[in-house]
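tool_call: predict_structure(chain=1)
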Amino acid sequence: MAETVGSARRAPLAPPSPRPVAAQRSTMLERFGVLARLLVHLLFRQVRVRAEAVEHLRQLARQGTLIYVMRYRSALDYLLVNAVLLREGLPLARFAPGVSTVAFRPLGELLGWLFRRRRRAGGGHAACSALVARGESVLLFMRSQAVAGRRRRALAAARLGPQYLRDVVRVAPAAGRPVFLVPVAIFRGKGFRRKESRLATLLYSVQEAPGEAKRFFNYLWNAEETQLTLGREIVLDRFVQDYRGEGDERIVRRLARALQIFLYREERLVWGPPLLPRRLVRRQVLRDPELARLVRRIAAERGLPRRRVWKEARGYFDEMAANFNGLYFGLLEAIFNRIWRRVFSGPGPEIVGLEKVVECVKEHPVVLVPCHRSHFDYLILSYIFHLNYLSPPHIAAGDNLSFWPMGPLFRGAGAFFIRRTFEDNELYKMVFRKYLTFLIREGYTQEFFIEGGRTRTGKILTPKLGMLSAILNAFVQGVRRDLYFVPISMHYGRIPEEEAYKREVAGEEKERESLWSLLRARGVLKRRYGTVYVSYADPISLNAALGPARERFAAGLGDPEGEEEKRRFIQRLGFRLLRAVNDAAVAGATAVSATALLGAPRAACRMSDFLAAAHALSGLLRAQGARITASLERNDQSDFKESLHWLSGGGLVDRLVDSGGVVLHVPASKRINLDFYKNNTIHFFLVPSLLTRALLAEAPFSALRAHIGWWLDLYRWEFPLYYREAGALVGDGAALDHPIIRATAGILENFREAYLVVARTAAAQEEWPILQSALAQRMQRQFQTSLLLGEVHKPEGNSMITFGNALSRLAELGHVAVVRRGRGGRERWVDRGPAFDRLPELIRHFGT
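tool_result:
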């Protein structure tokens, strides 16, 4: 029986023959034989495919003919695709060049194929043409195999795709319905490809495995970690029309290139660039001519042999560089999976907006810019990439995290360690710049925390611009066409480091990370911390943000005027990234409950007052279009019973009962804990709170903008009209009993009180200059005294971090001056500023 039909390899463009197409050895199966069932059960039972992609393909199948396209020919891959298409109810391919499904058929069909005499008719091209003309699906491989060398004849023989695409283009108009070419990619394992032959890489990572035996063991090891990707279709009629003036051969080449580019992008999305061994990366980084010139200059200035300076440079590189290792990454994944189930709710973090990142990663390097609230942040972000078959990021980490044994594990999972300060070390700075340039040029995904460290107060910190500046300087040198920043908001039900943050806010020294501190912190694993939300904001194109300035910055390196323009651009970009993080933030029940409780005028409030404030705050969030967590939705409908139970169970709120009902009391020792969660969403309530304060101060409408603007300007180190419709206004004044007025009046009180105490302490200071740490201790004592006297009422305002921000703002206003002294400028001293005598006027303004 003929394997294929048709007698001409280049049939004329005419309606296809009505006679049926002969059965093909490569036809996908609707029923599997014993061998196929065993392989499918063993290897392909848990293959994942996105549900939305499957549904989209179903719609295309109803409209026209599907032509599946894969990169390399493989019988095992073909069986996998057969199993997935059959499982999802999608059209099966009737033909694929160079593969056979005979061995996978039921016994009866298998024997029939083996013993049936088959006459030889035309080739596979005729079968492909006839099936497409009849509207049947086929599958095409772009190449028959991976060619080891670059022999032109071998490469030409391996290129199957263009040969069969030529047939499809030629007969498609006669099919009478649209033809859709659908790229298909298979990924085994997760995360990354290392350019070394190691057992860990073979078993763990996503390997391009040309041999069927290697594929089999790879599938077997990664049986639970295999994904089939169905790409965006190419509409053949539209593609041909776009290039109709170029001729069939040129169109076929363009089509083959478009499909190869898609398949490459899908592979790049998962694999990322090849992860070179650290010794090869070191060789490339240290080969830079600019670095070589610096080494020669330093050697001459110090009177040292160049090899000594090169040894120092190699030491700096080894100190900072990442060293991806599949086994280390797998070990961290196992630890993380075990910890997650014990301390957080749900099978994993709730993710919003990841698909926007996926599209960027396919074409350009991506730099993740998350807020930093916990040590879990970077673990969760890498885990999300790993879980979604994305190449894991290189993470910029402080050298404080390089302690044994976590340092080697983090380095193996993609962390590169940098010192907190290195402005005075010219060689270290140059090595870091060249390493960063290498990462950008090769297209690796990166991640850094623009706040510099974890926030201890719960709100976004002011941006630290060193890393952003280094990325910009590398980018403007033309190493890439574009680069995207992705702001990310992290939200926790509760923070594992909550108690440590409270101690540090109160003035205790931060405990240095070490094995001993890690062992002592294992108690945090005995509690549960709720749901984690990770929200990805819209990616920001660096090329678009720069515009014409890119050429000016590249041409004006070292020019003072150009450097000043670049500095201002970096500062604006840093605050833009932080605003995007805030815009992407979700609002949860814990944050709203904390805001309502701490915004109350006294340490305790009745349940009815709390509920009125909490519902009012939820209404404000909805009016602003903020993302609401499922927990807040539930609590808003159930009078916050779940949230109050959660807070009281954690010792953050006491429930008391008197003749008037339930009273909620926040112990003084827990107000700083709750303040962290209030600050998670304080940016949503910033302007409403200032507006409420202005209305309560009876500021006229005409002066509201100036009044609010003054406070926003004052709080610039703290924070990078629904009212009338809600009935919160009566004429031009505030409705004092309205829930919105009562809920928002006290939200910013702890900041106002902290700034008031800082100004009073500075005004009363007689001995100048004074060490900043000593002045901060006086501020703490002043705040405690003011609390006892009833001059301030919010204990959470007694924060060393807020005092530091307030002092920085007073320095900007000229009331004080901050100077650095001592070795390396490590000591900060405070002196009178030119506007010191105007402090009483500022203190009077704090009364409004």
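agent: Residues 513 and 519 are 11 Å apart (CA to CA). Proceeding to next step.
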